[in-house]
């Protein structure tokens, strides 16, 4: 038997596929053209937008322009494109093929689009266990639900197609949605359907039993009964199989029973619908297969760019589906399914299941590691099978910590914990970008970190080692969060003890706290004082940022209500809060004093010069009286000074800029001599002794043994003993004869080195 002839591929189609594949690879890599092309890239980037060229451009030049717009200054900013695999190339190829196929003759186009649409619908219904369903492909993931609402309205109101909205005046339709649904979803539906907001009913979530993110079924039943009694028409219920925030699933089985009881349409959406293609799924998600419609987003689940969302639905009347816009007679609109049709064939059934299974395993891996971390609380619906993991830093009250319980220790704890979790999420996003975590605000839990690999893993290429890196970074940040939370109150208490510092209560700042230096001069007017505060705090911030410390000092967030403040970042376990606050106050006072000195410099110098002139004039008069008039005559004075010299005493003078007067230099030289003999520039100013390599504001040994009160005393005694040894050694060296030291006998040297009896007691008293 002869084999059927093998059909050769259309050379035009093959050539187009090769060109598109090569173009996409070039655009992704960001490498196109030579040095001349790079120069043109710079020029074209600067000249955008520009006029349309009259003679046209070639393909390479156009691709060059697209590359410039895509990458921009990525080399300088460190940005990179999201990875697009081969399955992504197939999806992108589908858009180009759709344009190519649309030029076919009408009958051939109709057959091709019908085949593409029927194949894709059949595959999706079998993958996600939705029997006897139809599919609507749309770009906006809300558009499918909008078309379903039109279908339900046409079903309940038979005259709606002819009478329009007048038929709704007697019996108002009602759309019910959970409070955990996407924000603005119900408002968008009412706006597009022309319904008043009174037609939207928000059903609260559970408050007593069950998940706090699940719809309260008992309350929904009561609301529907009240609406029916008031003459309203329950139209549609929007439920979640994976809420946008926490990923929890409503009780779909019970909700389906209510919808059947009140003749309502049940629509389900959510990320957990992706698990319907797995072999083992939870019963709560399985109930979604009995709903009237569901919206799927295979693009992020499978890492497919620019593929449409799909709404699967069941309805027996094709005419009403056509009226609602769920079906179309235009073949070009059916080509929306082409990118998905190509990608599903490329991946195959096993490849699709493997990607969704891999994302679910990543969630379980992270959840198992989070159970071993202290101070981390998770919010998951099912610990055995939860595609979305939400966790939050929240130190337990029962956990031992210095100073007692952390939570409830100060007011505004919830806001501070939220700020710390916001910082935690931002740090994890920056340091482990391939994990795909993000920050989410939940009504009951507050600010949390969310890990939803079904929405991110396929596009980012998240693997097990990325989850391990996420857990490792999380383990490093938990001690920092605990120490910061513990030291916040200590920092506040220390600042309140400083008269020159004011504590700024900013509960949204994820750090040690906020402080402002206040000038001690209260005689300034409001404008002058404000300028002084701004100047001192800006200089103080610059000084603190130059210090060798692990702490971060900043002027705060960009949009911050408080101004002229110093925001102090996260703290570590060995932080010396008292030293930190004392340093801030000390540096601030120095800046304020130096500012006063410069402000008064003109007046001080002027008064000082006048006083200096008077004193110099007085000194000249005294010299004239002491030496006589004859000695002032040039020639006669020289002869008299040669026969009878005068021992004139020269008095040194210094000009004190702070006080604006002349002082004698005798105290300066006496103090300097005393400092050279008794003081050392390396002597500690306080009882704390800094070790080599130890940074500022860090307590030595804080990580091992706590420093007791006697430790500082022992350091002080050691410094006294070292000073005493230095002084005794100086006395011994002063009494040893300096001539011929090598020939001095031992007994003579030892006798000469003895301290006289009277001087020994006197030196010990001086040391004490």
TrEMBL record:
Keyword Lyase found: yes
Family annotation (SUPFAM superfamilies): PLP-dependent transferases
Gene3D superfamilies, sorted: Type I PLP-dependent aspartate aminotransferase-like (Major domain) (3.40.640.10)
Keywords: Coiled coil, Decarboxylase, Lyase, Pyridoxal phosphate
Keyword Membrane: no
Region (Disordered): 676-768
Residue ranges of every copy of the PDXDC1-like third domain listed in the record: 491-596
Biased composition (Acidic residues): 759-768
A Pfam family matched in the record: PDXDC1-like_cen2
Domain PDXDC1/PDXD2 second: 386-485
Family named by the database record: Belongs to the group II decarboxylase family.
Name the record gives this protein: Pyridoxal-dependent decarboxylase domain-containing protein 1
């Amino acid at each position: 038997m002869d084999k059927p002839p093998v059909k050769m591929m259309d050379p035009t189609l093959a050539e187009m596929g090769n060109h598109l594949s090569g173009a996409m690879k070039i655009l992704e890599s960001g490498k196109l053209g030579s040095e001349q092309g790079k120069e043109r890239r710079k020029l074209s980037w600067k000249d955008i937008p520009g006029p349309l060229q009259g003679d046209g451009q070639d393909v390479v030049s156009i691709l060059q322009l697209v590359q410039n717009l895509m990458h921009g200054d990525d080399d300088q900013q460190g940005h990179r494109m999201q990875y697009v695999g081969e399955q992504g190339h197939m999806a992108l190829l589908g858009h180009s093929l759709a344009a190519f196929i649309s030029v076919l003759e009408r009958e051939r186009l109709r057959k091709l689009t019908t085949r593409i649409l029927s194949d894709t619908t059949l595959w999706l219904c079998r993958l996600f266990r939705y029997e006897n369903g139809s599919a609507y492909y749309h770009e906006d993931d809300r558009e499918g639900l909008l078309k379903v609402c039109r279908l339900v309205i046409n079903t309940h109101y038979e005259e709606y197609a002819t009478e329009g909205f007048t038929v709704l005046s007697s019996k108002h339709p009602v759309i019910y949605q959970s409070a955990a649904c996407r924000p603005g979803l119900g408002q968008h539906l009412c706006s597009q359907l022309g319904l008043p907001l009174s037609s939207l009913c928000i059903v609260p979530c559970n408050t007593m039993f069950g998940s706090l993110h699940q719809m309260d079924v008992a309350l929904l039943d009561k609301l529907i009964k009240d609406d029916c009694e008031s003459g309203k028409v329950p139209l549609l219920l929007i439920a979640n199989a994976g809420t946008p925030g926490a990923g929890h699933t409503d009780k779909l089985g019970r909700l389906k029973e209510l919808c059947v009881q009140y003749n309502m349409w049940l629509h389900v959406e959510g990320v957990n619908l992706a698990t319907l293609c797995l072999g083992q799924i939870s019963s709560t998600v399985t109930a979604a297969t009995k709903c009237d419609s569901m919206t799927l987003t295979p693009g992020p689940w499978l890492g497919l760019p620019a593929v449409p969302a799909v709404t699967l639905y069941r309805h027996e009347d094709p005419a009403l589906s056509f009226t609602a816009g769920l079906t179309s007679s235009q073949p070009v609109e059916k080509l929306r399914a082409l990118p998905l049709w190509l990608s599903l064939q490329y991946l195959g059934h096993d490849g699709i299941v493997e990607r969704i299974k891999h994302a679910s395993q990543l969630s379980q891996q992270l959840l198992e590691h989070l159970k071993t971390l202290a101070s981390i609380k998770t919010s998951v619906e099912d610990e055995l099978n939860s595609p979305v993991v939400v966790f939050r830093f929240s130190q337990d009250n029962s956990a031992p910590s210095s100073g007692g319980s952390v939570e409830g220790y100060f007011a505004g704890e919830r806001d501070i914990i939220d700020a710390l979790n916001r910082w935690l999420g931002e740090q994890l996003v920056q340091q482990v970008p391939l994990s795909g975590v993000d920050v989410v605000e939940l009504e009951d839990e507050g600010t949390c970190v969310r890990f939803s690999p079904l929405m991110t893993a396929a596009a980012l290429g998240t693997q097990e080692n990325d989850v391990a890196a996420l857990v490792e970074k999380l383990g490093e940040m938990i001690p920092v969060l605990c120490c910061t939370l513990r030291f916040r109150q200590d920092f506040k208490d220390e600042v309140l003890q400083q008269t020159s510092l004011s504590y700024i209560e900013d509960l949204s700042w994820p750090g040690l706290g906020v402080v402002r230096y206040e000038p001690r001069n209260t005689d300034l007017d409001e404008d002058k004082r404000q300028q002084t505060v701004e100047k001192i705090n800006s200089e103080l911030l610059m000084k603190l940022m130059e210090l060798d410390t692990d702490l971060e000092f900043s002027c705060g967030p960009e949009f911050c209500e408080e101004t002229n403040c110093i925001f102090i970042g996260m703290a570590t376990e060995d932080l010396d809060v008292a030293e930190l606050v004392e340093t801030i106050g000390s540096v601030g006072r120095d800046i304020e004093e130096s500012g006063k000195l410069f402000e008064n410099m003109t007046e001080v110098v002027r008064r000082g010069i006048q006083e200096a002139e008077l004193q110099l004039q007085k000194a000249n008069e005294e010299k004239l009286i002491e030496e006589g008039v004859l000695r002032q005559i040039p020639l006669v004075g020289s002869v008299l000074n040669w026969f009878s010299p005068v021992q004139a005493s020269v008095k040194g003078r210094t000009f004190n800029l702070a006080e604006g007067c002349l002082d004698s230099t005798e105290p300066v030289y006496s103090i300097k001599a005393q400092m050279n003999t008794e003081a050392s520039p390396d002597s500690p100013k306080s009882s704390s002794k800094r070790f080599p390599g130890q940074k500022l504001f860090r307590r030595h040994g804080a990580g091992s043994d706590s420093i007791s009160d006697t430790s500082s005393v022992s350091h002080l005694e050691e410094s006294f003993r070292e000073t005493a040894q230095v002084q005794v050694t100086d006395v011994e060296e002063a009494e040893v004869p300096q001539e011929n030291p090598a020939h001095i006998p031992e007994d003579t040297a030892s006798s000469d080195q003895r301290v006289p009896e009277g001087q020994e007691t006197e030196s010990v008293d001086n040391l004490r």
